[in-house]
Amino acid sequence: MRIATYNINGVKARLPRLLEWLDETRPKVACLQEVKSQDAGFPAEEFEKIGYKAIWHGQKSFNGVAILADGVEPVETQRGLPGDPEDEQARYLEADVNGVRIACIYLPNGNPLPGPKFDYKIAWMKRLRARMQELSALEIPCAIVGDYNVIPEDDDVWASKAMESDALMQPESRDAYARLLADGWTDAVRTLNPRGGVWTYWDYQAGAWQRDHGFRIDHLLLTPELADRMTAVGVDREYRGREKASDHTPVWVEISTP
């Protein structure tokens, strides 16, 4: 069972690339971020044509998350991150697929800082930790995947000096991410690539893709019940280099049948 995450940066703008990736790699579950589509405009019928069922949590022009499952209907368990009833941003969606609880997240970027956007990011991460603790307590196979907008370590970026003033690398951001791992969650990509040097994002500016100036912000965190079944992880790097690609590329983990 392959679980993948992909910040698509506009589901309509990148639809040909997205369908191409789904058809060529066939992940069992694909979690999408930055869908940038209202619920009514989400192109679910296009995914159904190639065998994927979908649930989504949309928002006009910004944010938005979706969970696609190959041949099965995702059973929604949570829409929106608990903890702040006034938060209307579409950044969290959770569902059960084939006996695995999967949450798709688009964590706030936090720039510019200091300021309200960074404060919102850190508050959101605290709420995320609370939800993840609730899920941990269930002792079920669970994956929290998506664009975390956190560069966890210096070897997760092409040049740490270049990003040191960015919200993605602030001590508060890194500490909040480290606390998730300290709670018992496994960073799938880091576990099988302990030396770092794996990128999932390359900016559109300054020839970042051509110069391989990337960093890792798309993560798959697993409960012990699921981490024990992890057999492989990968980054579908080539898709970043295709025409009209997202600035992120797909990341996935392979899970064995229990």
TrEMBL record:
GO terms, biological process: DNA repair
Record-listed E.C. numbers: 3.1.11.2
Residues bound to Mg(2+): N7, E34, D147, N149, D247, H248
Positions bearing the site annotation: Important for catalytic activity: D218
Keyword annotations: Hydrolase, Magnesium, Manganese, Metal-binding
Endonuclease/exonuclease/phosphatase domain residues: 4-248
Gene Ontology terms, MF aspect: double-stranded DNA 3'-5' DNA exonuclease activity; metal ion binding
Sites marked Transition state stabilizer: N149
Top-level class of the enzyme under EC nomenclature: hydrolase
Keyword NADP set for record: no
Cofactors named for this entry: Mg(2+); Mn(2+)
Site (Interaction with DNA substrate): residue numbering on this chain: H248
PROSITE patterns: AP_NUCLEASE_F1_4
Designated name of the protein: Exodeoxyribonuclease III
Annotated gene: xth
